[in-house]
Amino acid sequence: MNGGDSKDDEEEREQVMSEVHLGCPPGISGPHISRFTICLPSGVESSRFNGLFKEEESCTDQEIRFDEDGDLILPRRRQISRRCFTMKIQHNITSSIPSVGLQVWKAELILSDFVLHKMCTSMEFHGIVSLELGAGTGLAGMLLAHAAKTVFLTDHGDQILENCLKNVQLNSGVLNHQKVVYVRELDWTHPWPPKVSSDLATQERFSWSSSELEEVQKASLLLAADVIYSDDLTDALFGILERIMSQGSEKVLYLALEKRYNFSLDDLDVVANGYLNFRSYLKDDSGRM
């Protein structure tokens, strides 16, 4: 057995857990359904969400106040608001490193909050075509589907893709049109665009059709959350981003990540090598890192 095989076996055995799942019932090894409540801020027109909410008077005091230490005092709802809806997300409590797409991670919540903010404060995401890379459970992309014309949720591996599709089905009641959300496989190490099989008998469930590839070329928005944890995957991510963003419509990428620190035996120090590798791909307008 070579060193690479040993590392792969270790990653398959090692179980990791997202901090998002700390409040979940202990001892559950299989899928668990969590409910995420999405609430509109006061002053946002619910018509932006195509009648998903019923209009009502605001039940919170929206005056901005600070405590004696200068910290913001968050307004609290005195009753359950009807300007909220719930998204059900099926996920694992723990997983191996290759299967982390079965969990909800903090960066996905941050990205979802950003998407909601943009949907509430502008029309930038309305009517667009979007592609999410490493979608995992699909939370951010499904939230975007309330405004976007078409959303492609992409990841790699049948188990992760099946779980993502299950979440689309669980939330069909709050999605405007289920047909605008596609779950498709995208292996970052393979060429872009993916191959299209003309033989329906051999076409896999999460494979792309020629019409879908034509549609995704029109994408103006790319999303990714918590996809920076392996240098090899980071290298593959930027490789496929270069290919995707050089074709079709002009695109913008919003990427959320957590800067993870680990003790390195090579450096004998606490380092964030994954983050440093990510930063090595970024340059400002002057070409500086």
From TrEMBL:
Recorded coiled-coil stretches: none
GO cellular component, one term: nucleus
SUPFAM superfamilies, per the entry: S-adenosyl-L-methionine-dependent methyltransferases
Pfam families (UniProt xref): Methyltransf_16
GO MF annotations, alphabetized: protein methyltransferase activity
InterPro entries, per database record: Methyltransf_16, METTL22, SAM-dependent_MTases_sf
Name used for this protein in its record: Methyltransferase-like protein 22
Organism: Gossypium mustelinum (Cotton)
